[in-house]
Design brief:
By secondary structure, the protein is an alpha+beta fold. The chain has two domains: 303 residues, Aminopeptidase, CATH 3.40.630.10; 103 residues, Alpha-Beta Plaits (2-Layer Sandwich). It has twelve helices and 18 strands. The strands form five sheets. A six-stranded mixed β-sheet has the order 1-2-7-3-8-15, with helices on both faces. Helix 1 packs across helix 11 and helix 5 crosses helix 11. The protein starts with a helix and ends in an 11-residue tail after the last helix. It binds zinc ion. The site of zinc ion (ZN) has 5 residues, from helix 5.
Length: 427
């Protein structure tokens, strides 16, 4: 891994900048709200076609209640090669027709449109990073596996088992979610997210005639709400919010039912377990009242584990080859990186640089797309864990004739070190 290669990737990607913008435009024009499963086919097809052109085998997995997802692997992957996951989502929070209010636009260095930042820009960068690697006649030693789901913005319920499975098979995961703010920080921590519902049951009675025969679920719920808010612990990074409260039937009836909906954010698995135990362990204060508590942590926290930090340090060093001084930060919301981090080294926020996720002013910087695609390409080419040095690998021998524009030095360097990865005809 050296500056020459970084320069070659930057040059290749700069030449393809117009094409990258055109590709992003196609992705954005294919509107794809998570809540409209049938809208995902078009955007997934665009990614599928682009990856097939790069000689990837693409599998489209249909969803039950979502638009499904796509998994792609290089068609020449030897079975035993180490693998890495490139993870993105094609769904957005924007409803069909959002383009009328916020059309795709390029104004100087600023590009706008529904989902440019979160995270169609990231998909474009991923495709062009892989394209640049191929254009230079290189193959990553750690084989890329791409997963693009279409239910991330609604909690990834259907795709999570597939992500979990892949995460267990790879040695690292790069997540193409947007960077942290306009300075382009990478995301090395995300809080875990939990969602719970507490139902209080009491006994109805006439509030005027015989209130003492009733048990007020609303009063019981008021105790529950106070206990829940008391679980907030800013010093530990724990937040518990009762965001919805409802209950009762009429003002002159002792309320038989009440309900509270709770959002929980935690920085570590340990805090997740502690808070969950406390919530599931809530007990009623009033004689005759009962509580039913449901819910779970829907996304585990993305923690700064040693493996994740090692990957971040590698990205930081790699960024310097491109003249980038990268910073790390913690994001409040969860992503599918929270899931992969349970099983493999994960680095998030490698997507576009811009701002305004889920907001009307969502935008990305055009010139940063080139830079970030080059960064991703270098990371994808990085050696497997525990192996230092320059592990770039030549094209398979039968393809070498096509790769005439490759820098000859790259191939020789790889071959001399005996690290060449050849196509296994049986794989
Ligand atoms: Zn996202």
């Amino acid at each position: 891994m050296d500056r020459t290669l970084a320069g070659q990737l930057l040059a290749t990607l700069s030449q393809q900048e117009e094409e990258m913008v055109a590709f992003l435009r196609r992705l954005v024009l294919a509107e794809s709200p998570s809540s409209t499963p049938e809208a995902q086919a078009q955007v997934l097809a665009i990614v599928q076609e682009a990856l097939q052109e790069l000689d990837y085998e693409v599998e489209l997995v249909s969803g039950q209640t979502t638009g499904g997802h796509l998994v792609a692997r290089p068609s020449y992957s030897p079975a035993a090669a180490p693998r890495q996951l490139l993870l993105g989502h094609c769904d957005t929070v924007w409803p069909l027709g959002a383009l009328r209010e916020m059309p795709f636009s390029v104004n100087g260095n600023v590009m706008k449109g529904p989902g440019v930042y979160d995270m169609k820009g990231g998909l474009a960068q991923m495709v062009f990073a892989l394209r640049a690697i191929r254009a230079l006649g290189l193959e990553p030693v750690v084989r890329p596996v791409v997963l693009v789901n279409s239910d991330e913005e609604i909690g990834s319920e259907e795709s999570t088992p597939h992500i979990r499975q892949l995460a267990q098979e790879v040695e690292r995961a790069f997540v193409l979610e947007p960077s942290l703010g306009p300075a382009g920080w990478l995301k090395t921590a995300r809080k875990g997210v939990g969602r719970y519902q507490v139902v209080a049951n009491g006994r109805a009675a006439h509030a005027g005639l015989d209130p003492e025969k009733g048990v007020s679920a609303v009063l019981e719920l008021s105790y529950v709400i106070q206990k829940l808010f008391a679980m907030n612990d800013p010093a530990r990074g724990v937040s518990v919010n009762v965001g919805i409260v409802e209950g009762g039937v009429r003002s002159n009836v002792v309320a038989p039912h009440g309900r509270a909906v709770v959002d929980v954010r935690v920085p570590t698995q340990e805090e997740a377990r502690r808070v969950e135990t406390a919530i599931l362990g809530l007990r009623p204060e009033l004689a005759g009242a009962t509580l039913e508590v449901q819910g779970r942590m829907t996304r585990p926290p993305l923690e700064r584990t040693p493996a994740n930090q090692a990957l971040w340090q590698m990205a930081r060093r790699t960024g310097r080859l491109l003249g980038l001084e990268l910073e790390e930060g913690a994001a409040g919301g969860g992503s599918d990186g929270n899931t992969t981090s349970l099983y493999t080294a994960t680095l998030d926020g490698l997507g576009p640089v811009g701002d305004g996720a889920h907001a009307q002013h969502e935008f990305i910087y055009r010139d940063k797309m080139v830079e970030r695609a080059a960064l991703l390409a270098l990371l994808v080419l990085a050696p497997p864990r525990g192996r230092a040095g320059d592990l770039l690998v030549s094209r398979p021998p039968e393809s070498e004739a096509e790769a005439g524009d490759r820098q000859p030095g790259d191939v020789r360097r790889a071959d001399q070190r005996g690290l060449g990865c050849r196509r296994d005809p049986s794989a």
